[in-house]
């Protein structure tokens, strides 16, 4: 009696599906091949279940990470520009004539006082917006980035120790 063999093309197709995350039992039923045969074949050839799925996940994560990093950098740039504008406003206050007045309703304030109040309000609003954006975009300062990198290294080290 002649043994039934699987073609190389069929074997490669089954391997691709297995490495994409499908179970061997499902593939055995789908292609009408003995489960033991597939299990032995996968073991002999070191097939890794879901490895393609993991690779795709990692690539998608890297892509998203790059997009998020770009958004973060744009936000940082935006806040640098806003901070620079405030600094310019503060510098313009230095040589201002305190005798120029602005009428606000019945109250009379010097132009310099009014501008200083506006600068103060802008500064506090930017500070609040930055804290919100920092949370949303996970914007980190240099110290926080270093701490995160150290934590990541420790995590990778622990992962390597568990794999051994």
Which keywords apply here?
2 strands
Summarize the structure.
75% of the residues lie in helices and 5% in strands. By secondary structure, the protein is mainly alpha-helical.
Explain what you see.
- The mean pLDDT is 78.
- This protein folds into two domains: 8-44; 51-163, no CATH class.
- A hairpin with a 2-residue loop joins strand 1 (101-104) and strand 2.
- The protein has 164 residues and is mostly helical.
- The longest helix is centred in the middle third of the chain and has 44 residues, at 51-94.
- It has helices spanning 8-19, 24-31, 35-44, 51-94, 111-137, 142-163; strands at 101-104, 107-110.
- The chain is rod-shaped.
- It has a two-stranded antiparallel ribbon with strand order 1-2.
- The two termini are 46 Å apart.
How many separate structural domains?
2
Order of helices and strands: HHHHEEHH
Beta percentage is under 5%
Detail the poorly predicted runs: none
Shape descriptor: rod-shaped
Average pLDDT rating: 78
- End-to-end span in angstroms? 46 Å
Spatial strand arrangement across the major sheet: 1-2
* Major sheet characteristics: 2 strands, antiparallel
Number of helices: 6
Determine the fraction of residues in helical runs and give it as a percent range.
Answer: over 70%
Sequence-ordered SSE layout with sheet pairings:
Layout lengths: L7 H12 L4 H8 L3 H10 L6 H44 L6 E4 L2 E4 H27 L4 H22 L1
Antiparallel strand pairs: 1-2
Helix pairs in contact: 4-5
């Amino acid at each position: 009696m002649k043994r039934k063999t699987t073609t190389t093309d069929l074997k490669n197709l089954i391997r691709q599906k297995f490495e994409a995350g499908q179970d061997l039992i499902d593939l055995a039923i789908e292609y009408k091949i003995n489960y033991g045969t597939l299990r032995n074949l996968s073991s002999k050839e070191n097939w890794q279940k879901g490895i393609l799925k993991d690779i795709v996940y990692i690539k998608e994560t890297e892509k998203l990470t790059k997009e998020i990093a770009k958004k973060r950098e744009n936000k940082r740039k935006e806040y640098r520009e806003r901070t620079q504008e405030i600094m310019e406003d503060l510098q313009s206050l230095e040589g201002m004539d305190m005798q120029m007045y602005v009428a606000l309703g019945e109250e009379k304030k010097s132009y310099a006082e009014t501008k200083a109040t506006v600068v103060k309000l802008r500064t506090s609003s930017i500070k609040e917006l930055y804290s919100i954006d920092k949370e949303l975009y996970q914007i980190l300062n240099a110290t926080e980035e270093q701490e995160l990198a150290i934590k990541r290294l420790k995590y990778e080290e622990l992962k390597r120790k568990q794999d051994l």
